[in-house]
Amino acid sequence: VEIYVSRDEAVVRRHFGPEARGWRGSMFSNYHVNVELPAGTDIEVGTRFGDLTIEGSFGDIDVDLRAGDVNVRIPKKDVRELNASARVGEVRAKLGDEVVSREGVFPGKTRYVNRSGRTVVNLHVTAGDLNVDLQQ
Question: How many helices and strands, by DSSP H and E, does the chain display?
Fold first, then answer.
């Protein structure tokens, strides 16, 4: 794993094996990466497989995961708009006092809007579980 920094953007990426050389063949690897970011930082995650946990107060969050689980715990007051979806799996969103749970094939999109919030959160999993906890 390497971290590549260019101006105001940091990219965490795999830097070994066939995929690093541009070949999209099958190679399995297993590693755990813990990244700590300052409050208000925008996050964009695009990966094929794995599990992802995001906890804290951030700027805009954009996650697109092909297969795996996503767990997000962020302050409810920060969120202006939440869009959470899965193609196959479960989308469970705790929106303060309300819990929205959808599962199966094409479980639909869970949406939350708070005009006083400041961040836009887009979360998508093609196959897997998506758990969102907007904390009071």
Answer: 1, 9
